[in-house]
């Protein structure tokens, strides 16, 4: 079941990444293109592709097309002719040979949402430059005691807020958690500040239109997402200007300080990389957390194994003693993905391997540590992950939660 989400994402993004193969030959289509359908004029097959379906299946669109045309087929998605690949070996080849046999490319409509300098869109030297900056931030953060304490304190704060709740909407909670964490670490904005709420609201609007029919009419998800991205850019640009004006760059000590003092970036590059890291740390991490919690409820044996690992870690610590890097390294069962990395690509691959993968695993591990030691939870029978093609839960992953009686002893989130 875990295989489905990354598989669909890889099929989706590979499909977008190869659209130029058809676009180049739009007037004289070569005979060796794969079979497929261009769908309706203008719309192509986008509506069928975006039709929600259970994430543990390919969905009717991919199922029918693969059955009819094979696992690699031509289509017309998001305003562009497209080759869609649902073949794992081909997808891995493409990811591993970017800039050699293939070059990443996205439909123009995606540029309006992501921005022309997004790490997702750019290639070559610009991509390497921006990715290296992001990677250096991740490397410096993941074992930094200050960051580890920030992750744990926000985890504890989140779970304290559930103390008198019988039900929670987990997706909403975890998205707020992951975005607040990244906003704090990147920009030194505290969760309780009005600006943090504004950024969260804009990101929610942004994500609703991130993968949508690219029609720029007032009120459409796409138009709202483009406007939300513009507001987010303006917010980050304003923070940059304020620091330059008030000469605060050496006082905050966050990621923005680092790139303002050490890197030679244009304002547009600075804004773009901050938004890329916010996006990666927000949506990807939150989605993986939600899927993990959902499947742990379905597989109690796995949950018990996980719980035993975290109980062993807690038993060797004093009451209330924070987690550290050495504790994380002991969470082998928690972050072990050796059994799935050959089949799935939750963090991409090749030059597109997500530089924040290690940071996401750490955040999830710390969160799970306190969750499994302090709460029991049940999912709803009618709530399950859907692919849009990104993953969303039908009811926002509504959980029935119950505090574990001895939570004050083992979990250190008691008041």
TrEMBL record:
> In what way does this protein cross or attach to the membrane?
Single-pass membrane protein
Q: Does the keyword Ion transport apply?
A: no
Write down a Pfam family by its short name: p450
Subcellular location(s) per record: Membrane
**Keyword field contains 4Fe-4S:** no
Extract the SUPFAM superfamilies matched here. Answer: Cytochrome P450
Q: Which UniProt keywords apply?
A: Heme, Iron, Membrane, Metal-binding, Monooxygenase, Oxidoreductase, Transmembrane, Transmembrane helix
| Source taxon at top rank | Eukaryota
Record's PANTHER family?
CYTOCHROME P450 26, CYTOCHROME P450, FAMILY 724, SUBFAMILY A, POLYPEPTIDE 1
Q: Which family does it belong to?
A: Belongs to the cytochrome P450 family.
Which protein are we looking at? Cytochrome P450
Species for this entry = Hibiscus sabdariffa
